[in-house]
Design a protein that fits this description.
46% of the residues lie in helices and 5% in strands. By secondary structure, the protein is mainly alpha-helical. The protein has a domain at 103-211. It is rod-shaped and about 95 Å long.
Length: 212
């Protein structure tokens, strides 16, 4: 919901700026079509005959009116530049947010896939975790986890990538630390078989990548 509100605020800001443009345009049109002198009903005398229609092209503006028109056009251009900056900025923010959301979703999906593969490995290897998940989950193994043809692979092709940092290497540690260590894509604890994203930071959802 928080993002939805951000998008609503962004849309309202642009609508306000577009309203300014509309008002400016109305001012320009009013300056061109409103008569220079407007007589009151009391001062206006009935014409004995309809006034002749002005000839085509018989419309002229004084120098002062031309200067006012030029000033309004310049103001309209300034407003247009402001709108372009705001619209462009919102588009860039939206694109960046969408990209981060997609990375976070892909990261959560890859974490779940790898953890499922680890569980399957343990089931077929006497409840033991792999020593080298990057190899033992992507190749076939024997009952003891060495090279063989009996079990696996549990992950097809290559080990999944961490979409946040673009790395797919696995750092193997004895016990899971409290924070990311090194630059590998993943970190894996031998004592518990737990795998986490080895990257710091918080995703658009507000959750830490390392805690997924």
């Amino acid at each position: 919901m928080r993002h939805a509100r951000r998008e609503i605020r962004g849309a309202t800001r642009v609508e306000v700026l577009l309203t300014i443009i509309s008002v400016t345009l109305l001012g320009i049109l009013a300056a061109l079509v409103v008569p220079r002198e407007v007589a009151t009903d009391e001062a206006r005398a009935p014409d004995p005959a309809p006034a002749p229609a002005p000839e085509t092209g018989d419309v002229s503006l004084t120098q002062e009116e031309l200067e006012q028109f030029a000033a309004m056009v310049a103001e309209l251009r300034d407003v247009s530049r402001v709108v372009e900056r705001f619209v462009g900025r919102d588009s860039e923010v939206d694109a960046a947010t969408r990209s981060r959301r997609a990375d976070e979703a892909a990261l959560a999906s890859n974490v779940a896939t790898i953890r499922m593969a680890l569980e399957m490995y343990a089931v077929q290897h006497d409840d033991t975790w792999p020593d080298d998940p990057a190899v033992q989950l992507t190749t076939t193994t024997d009952r003891e986890g060495g090279p063989g043809t009996e079990y696996g692979p549990y992950l097809r092709n290559t080990f999944p990538e961490n979409p946040v940092n673009g790395r797919r290497e696995v750092r193997v540690v004895d016990t899971m630390p409290e924070a990311p260590v090194g630059e590998e894509g993943w970190i894996y604890a031998l004592d518990t078989g737990v795998l986490r994203a080895n990257v710091a930071g918080v995703g658009p959802s507000g959750g830490a990548y390392f805690e997924l």
